[in-house]
Design brief:
The protein is globular. Strands 3, 6, 7, 8, 9, 10, 11 and 12 form an 8-stranded antiparallel sheet that branches. The protein has a 7-stranded antiparallel sheet with strand order 2-1-17-16-15-14-13. By secondary structure, it is of the alpha+beta class. The longest helix is centred in the N-terminal third of the chain and has 9 residues. The chain has one domain. The structure holds 2-acetamido-2-deoxy-beta-D-glucopyranose (2 copies). One 2-acetamido-2-deoxy-beta-D-glucopyranose binds next to loops. Keywords: Signal.
Length: 283
C-alpha cells in the first residue's frame, strides 16, 4: 500500500513539483540544448558577466557600449559559436539571449530567413541575422540595469520578450507567462515532451506556408512559462550546441504538423531552459 502511494506520488507531475519544492515561475537557472547525453546537453550558461568572463566567454562587440547596433546588452559568445550569445545589462546581470546566422552561410538551400521573417524577428546586423529574447523589461537593460538584490531574488528574469523588429525598446513583444494566457493568444498549443514541456508555436496551421514558420517556440511546465527555444528552417552545422530533430519527431512537438515542413530538409533548433533542472519538466 505504501509502495503504491509512493509510486503514485512520484509519477504525478504536480506532486513531483511539490516533493522537489519546485517553483517553475522562479527562474533559477539558464541552460541550453536538449539531448540524451547529459555531458553535452542541459549545459548551464553564465548569468553574470563576471562568471562569463572567468568561464571563457568573450565580448562580441568592440567598446564598452551596452547597446550594440539594434540590440540591448553587452554581448558575449564562446568559441565563436553563434548558436548561443548571452546579453548582460549595464551592471553585468543576465538580460537576454540571442542566436545568429551568417548571411552567406553555405549550404543554405532554403535561403533562410524567409522574407516574412526578415526584421521580425530575424534582425540584420552586419554580415549576420540575429534572433533575440530578453528576460527583463528592455527599457531597464541599458539604463539602470538590475541590482544584485534584484538579480538574486528575481533570478534569470521577470518575463520574456522577443525582439520582433529593429528597435528593441519599441518592438519587443511580451510572451504569455501562463499557459492560460498562451492558449488565449495567437500562440498555438503543440504537444508535451517530457524534459522539455508543453510546446507552443506561433500561429501554426497545417496548411500554412513555411515562409511564415516563426522561429521561436515556448515551453510551459506546471502551467507556467519556464523555457523556450529557436527553430530555424536551415541546417546549421557550425554550432555544437544547436539541435537537429528528425522529421519523424515533429509530431511529438506539434499537434498538427504543417504539410510544408516535409519538404524543408533538416531543421535546427535550440531548447533554452530558464530553471536549473530540465528533469522536472514533465508539462
Ligand atoms: C514562485 O516564484 C515566483 C517568481 O519568483 C513568485 O512570484 C511566486 O510567489 C513563487 N510562488 C511560490 C508558491 O513560492
Ligand atoms: C512579429 O511581427 C510581424 C510583422 O509585423 C507580425 O506579423 C507577427 O505577428 C509578429 N510576431 C509576434 C510574435 O509578435
Amino acid at each position: 500500500m505504501l509502495g503504491k502511494i509512493a509510486l503514485l506520488v512520484l509519477s504525478c507531475a504536480a506532486c513531483q513539483a511539490f516533493i522537489l519544492g519546485r517553483n517553475q515561475s522562479h527562474w533559477d537557472g539558464l541552460k541550453v540544448t536538449w539531448g540524451i547525453n547529459p555531458f553535452s546537453s542541459f549545459q548551464g550558461v553564465p548569468r553574470t558577466k563576471a562568471e562569463a568572463t572567468s568561464d571563457g566567454w568573450v565580448k562580441m562587440d568592440t567598446g564598452t557600449a551596452c547597446q550594440n547596433g539594434p540590440f540591448l546588452g553587452e554581448r558575449f559568445w564562446k568559441d565563436s559559436d553563434l548558436g548561443v550569445i548571452l546579453l548582460y545589462d549595464v551592471n553585468g546581470y543576465i538580460a537576454g539571449i540571442q542566436a545568429g546566422i551568417e548571411k552567406n552561410y553555405s549550404p543554405n538551400p532554403n535561403h533562410y530567413p524567409f522574407p516574412p521573417l526578415v526584421s521580425h524577428p530575424m534582425v540584420a546586423n552586419g554580415a549576420r541575422f540575429f534572433i533575440t529574447a530578453y528576460f527583463v523589461p528592455t527599457d531597464k537593460i541599458c539604463s539602470t540595469g538590475r541590482t544584485e538584490t534584484e538579480f538574486r531574488t528575481q533570478g534569470t528574469g521577470t518575463g520574456l520578450w522577443i525582439q520582433n523588429g529593429t528597435n528593441p525598446l519599441t518592438d519587443s513583444e511580451a510572451i504569455p507567462m501562463t499557459i492560460e494566457a498562451a492558449r488565449a493568444s495567437r500562440w498555438t498549443e503543440g504537444k508535451c515532451f517530457i524534459s522539455m514541456g508543453d510546446h507552443f508555436w506561433y500561429n501554426l496551421h497545417k496548411d500554412m506556408s513555411c515562409d511564415n514558420l516563426y522561429p521561436m517556440f515556448l515551453l510551459y511546465n506546471d502551467n507556467v512559462l519556464n523555457g523556450f527555444g529557436w527553430a530555424f528552417a536551415m541546417n546549421i552545422q557550425s554550432s555544437k550546441r544547436l539541435e537537429h530533430p528528425g522529421q519523424s519527431v515533429y509530431g511529438s512537438f506539434m499537434k498538427e504538423v504543417p504539410t510544408c515542413l516535409s519538404s524543408l530538409g533538416t531543421l535546427t533548433t535550440l531548447h533554452i531552459y530558464l530553471t536549473s533542472s530540465a528533469y522536472g519538466d514533465t508539462c
